[in-house]
Amino acid sequence: MSVTDQPLAGGLAEGAVTERAPPPPPPVRKAPAGPVGGPASGERELRLDLFRGLALWLIFVDHLPPNLFTWLTIRNYGFSDATEIFIFISGYTAAFVYGRALTSRGFVVASARILKRVWQIYVAHVFLFTIFLAEISYVATSFENPLYTEEMGILDFLKHPDVTIVQALLLKFRPVNMDVLPLYIVLMLFLPLILWLMQRKPDLTLGLSVVLYAITWEFGLNLPAYPNGVWFFNPFAWQLLFVFGAWCALGGARRMAPLLSSRILLGICIAYLLAAFFVTLTWHLPRLGHFVPRIIEQWMYPINKTDLDVLRFMHFLALAAVAVRFLPSDWPGLRSPWLKPAILCGQHSLEIFCLGVFLAFAGHFVLAEVSGGAVIHFVISLSGIVIMSAAAAVFSWYKRVAAKGGKDAKSAEANADLAGGGS
Amino acid sequence: MKAIAGLIALVLLWSAAPATAESAPPSGCEVPAYLLTSESALNKVAAAVKTEGRLDIMVIGSRSATVVTPDGTGFPGRMEAALRERLPTVKVSVNVQLQIKKTAADVTGALAGILEGKQPTLVIWQTGTVDAMRAVDPDDFRTAVDEGVTALRKHGADVVLMNLQYGPRMETMITTAPYLDVMRVVAQQHEVPLFDRFAIMHHWNEAGQFDLFNNSRGIELARRVHDCLGRALANFVIEAARIKPSELRTQQ
């Protein structure tokens, strides 16, 4: 990677923004004035970082066996969960960062950068798979409780490593908790195309995305998985959130600002969130189920996560609208040290996401080896979040140091290239 | 330092807790009342018990309906024993139909053959494990369970659904939540009682009544868990059929 790429491609599409990158790039658009606009150019949109950081924490917690912390995750209070937030913000930031690259450096260079990012994510995924394999193999050889003879059948795939590993490399075999990165890889793969079209005809692009979503529902499109079934996160459906995020980043958010400040919309959103909350409540307290009219039940269920149910999408939109309304981008709390850990995590999303998956594996492993209880569960969840935050702080520190010694970094990188390394 | 020492002590205490509870007598398989009550009633069971004094049960299950072999030690056999004990005046018979490595869709497709020539009052359908292991599309799973329950009722039987086992080590490998959700939804829609094996075993593990982490290869733990499951299931059936064993006795 050349050093000039650093400020851009160093992020996940990770920096929501221009960061301190020299030279000052041509602003993609003017800083919006209203409270609901996107990021002002030249300044990091901390709200995106904050919410993505929180989403990463929630994904980590949701990947652990249910415990006290699980009750804090938003999936218990409505239809959508942290995955929606993560994919939307990823679409937003990716479009923002690579959209600028597309404007300033052209389609080929921007695409190359995106593909490089895709490669990094792929490698991260394979790395996580290796860790998973190590853990599972250990469990398989050490654990033989006859009570679970049937369930241990799940490890039969270890008997065919030839097939299993190849299928994993093809992204078709994705064990528990390893579904998000493959989705992300596919979405990023199509980002050059999406961006190219989005910069010319944003509304048409969004329209096409909706059409693809509708076709997916009509004809049941999905990608096959191994050993059977389909992708847990259907890329044909989830692309809608990603493209919608990109659309918002490239001017859509600004255009929606008047709509978002309408009181009527706010009322509708809050009403919908409350209704969703009530329905979710009936899952935990079946007694309440009788208050949900049968006809609504029949229409509503199942609320499909694989194909990003419309109800989930709407729930995310309502959440986002309310969040944007009550959390202006100049909210002083964004500078508070209390939110700093979440913001830092959001700023290094790929690294922290992978770390989260790894920590979830590790957490499972600890729980499987140490007969736990609520306390151990709690300790694992909390230490996971602390480790993620600490790692994010280290990444930020390193980035700052590397940016300060720009020249040194350049020569260091050249040396690394000489040595056959480099980034 | 103090804090760390305290934490370690706490952890040790915690991990020691199940070990002490384990030595409790096997009667210690308490289940919270809410897990043994259902708003859906087993009317046919109630009628058969009260008027005919008999109860024919069929258990359709996968491998986890047995301990090692399909002898009397799995939960179906233990349930039969518990029912006989609690309803001494009723002629109880339990027929087990093992459908090893079959998904819910497989079982639904084979129901006609399974039911042929049999007229059980109650069918207890234990399912979900194979589907979860194979990561069957939850939508397909839902359709299969839905059709299966419909077919069983059409055949004239009351139905109880039984969901997956809870296993602390299994959570790393098997995603259970969607299948548990589907079964809860289908049970609710058909107003069929759901025996929440997952929640019950989870409760036992949390409460330290069973150490499900146990790594020993002996079958003692499995036997005891199945014994408790069988008792709980018997209580659940009696509860859902709104039968009062004491009244039955006075009637006779």
Short description, anyone?
The complex is a heterodimer of chains A (423) and B (252). Chain A is mostly helical. Helix content of chain A is 65%, strand content 0%.
Structure, explained:
The complex is a heterodimer of chains A (423) and B (252). Chain A has a domain at 83-272. By secondary structure, chain A is mainly alpha-helical. The model of chain A is unreliable at 1-42 (pLDDT under 50). Chain A has helices spanning 6-9, 46-63, 82-105, 107-142, 161-169, 180-189, 191-200, 202-219, 235-260, 263-284, 294-300, 310-326, 340-347, 349-369, 374-404, 406-418. In chain A, helix 2 (46-63) packs parallel to helix 14, helix 7 (191-200) runs parallel beside helix 9 and helix 13 (340-347) crosses helix 15. Chain B is α/β, with parallel strands linked by helices and 252 residues long. Chain B has helices at residues 2-22, 43-52, 75-86, 104-115, 129-133, 138-154, 177-190, 197-207, 220-240, 245-251; strands at 54-61, 91-98, 122-126, 158-162, 194-195. In chain B, strands 2-1-3-4-5 form a 5-stranded parallel beta sheet, sandwiched between helices. Chain B is globular, with a radius of gyration of 19 Å. The interface between A and B is large, with 49 and 55 residues.
Encode the helix/strand succession of chain B as letters: HHEHEHEHHEHEHHH
Beta percentage of chain A is under 5%
- State mean pLDDT of chain A (0 to 100 scale): 82
Radius of gyration of CA atoms of chain B, rounded to a whole number: 19 Å
Order of helices and strands of chain A: HHHHHHHHHHHHHHHH
Main structural class of chain A: mainly alpha
**Percent range for helical residues of chain B?**
40-55%
Q: Mean pLDDT score of chain B, rounded?
A: 85
CATH H-level superfamily title of chain B: SGNH hydrolase
Adjacency order of strands in the biggest sheet of chain B? 2-1-3-4-5
Number of helices of chain B: 10
CATH architecture term of chain B? 3-Layer(aba) Sandwich
Gross morphology of chain A is globular
Detail the poorly predicted runs of chain B: 9-26
Helix content of chain A: 55-70%
Provide the CATH top-level class of chain B: Alpha Beta
Name the largest protein-protein interface in this structure: A-B, 49 and 55 residues
User: Helical region count of chain A?
Assistant: 16
Determine Rg of chain A (CA atoms, Å): 22 Å
